[in-house]
Amino acid sequence: MSTTVDPGLHKEIGCFGCDDITQCINCGNCTAVCSLSGEDAVFPRKTIRYAQLGIKDRLMESVEPWLCYYCGECSETCPRQANPGEIMMTLRRWLTAQYDWTGLSKKLYLSKTWEVFALAALAAFVVALFVFFHGPMVTDRVELNTFAPVVWVEIGDWVMALLLSSFLFTNVLRMHRYVMGSWLPSRIPFSIYLRELKTLVLHAMTQKRWKDCDNLSRWIKHLLLVTGYVTMLLLIVVFLRWFQTDGSQWRPIDLLGYYATGVLMFVTGEMIVSRLRRREEIHKHSHSTDWIFLVLLFLTALTGILVHGLRLAGLPLPTYYMYVLHLAIAVPMLVIEVPFGKWSHLAYRPLAIYLTNVKKQFEHSSQTANAAMPTVASPNY
Ligand code: SF4
Ligand code: SF4
After folding, report:
1. Span between the terminal Cα atoms of the chain, in Å
2. Which of 36, 214, 349 to mutate to test the pocket of ligand 2 (most atoms within 8 A of CB)?
3. How distant is the alpha carbon of residue 347 from its chain centre?
4. What's the whole-model pTM score?
5. C-beta 27 within 6 A of ligand 1
6. What is the domain count for the chain?
7. What is the band of 209 on the pLDDT scale with cuts at 50, 70, 90?
8. DSSP string, 311-356
9. Which ligand has the minimum distance to the alpha carbon of residue 52?
10. Which protein residue has the closest C-alpha to ligand 2 atom 2?
11. Does residue 285's CB lie within 6 angstroms of at least one atom of ligand 1?
12. What is the pLDDT of residues 295-308, one digit of tens each?
């Protein structure tokens, strides 16, 4: 198999966040200290070496950047201060841009102007929809469903969910093609893919490998965050007609909203403070997209609970305006982050573990089959 070498690759990758990759001297210290590096996937030294040498094909089929959970231990012990943890983070951004066929992800990661413009344009679109198409504004009591009929908001939710899932799914297919490309996937029995599906679901739901990264509290916070936004997504995509109701009465379903809001605000707030303090290795380096994602998630939760509070307080106009603001933050965040930005790691990480296991199972079954083959004695001449 021929390998194409791109001497400018390390510079291209560097634009996605990390400092100079060439500082690494390949001593291997980082791989030795990494608790997640093992027989199935050896990193980060080898992955960094591919980037230094410009072996793009190897990097594209590499799952290792997704198997790193950025504990920062390797960066703390690197003798060259090459910051391997941040290099792996940068590689995740670079790979996200490679998987994305639209090219938007690359633009958003490489240009703050592009990201701010895209978010602002989407926010303006949401506001314009309300300016031109909102329902009657009842002002003597809160009637959110008259101002923004739930059936229309629901249709908008479904269209957006379908669109974003399609983008993400096609990018996931591209990741599969790159990772399994040299493995002739047609030779791998479909039953192995099916058998390993449990791995995909388990890691998508729990990201449990993080526990092995010696940072239990970070894993718990991340797990809480997942439960928070899954609850919120269910409330707005599946149960909206029960969640968005009129009047100033309190309903039991609000408890789910409180949980989701509390978790989202607590965890994102804590992450923002940690990034501002820059004490731990993982919080010392923040890309502009890290900030934008955290701030938007925090503001989405904050404006959501403010809509609820204003509705309970019986303030019609502030409720309607806050509702528009809430959607003008939430919609751009979802459109940008789910298929093209940071949130896409929720699909790529478990898929990386899944494909690694599929390969391993295939190798194992091939070895077992070979061992079971009767040995044919060589004829004596
Ligand atoms: S990143 Fe640092 S620890 Fe890892 S191989 Fe390079 S120089 Fe060594
Ligand atoms: S940041 Fe942690 S998990 Fe990632 S490569 Fe370094 S030691 Fe391993």
Report:
1. 37
2. 36
3. 7
4. 0.91
5. yes
6. 2
7. confident
8. HHTT-HHHHHHHHHHHHHHHHHHHHHHHHHSGGGHHHHHHHHHHHH
9. 1
10. 71
11. no
12. 999 999 999 999 99
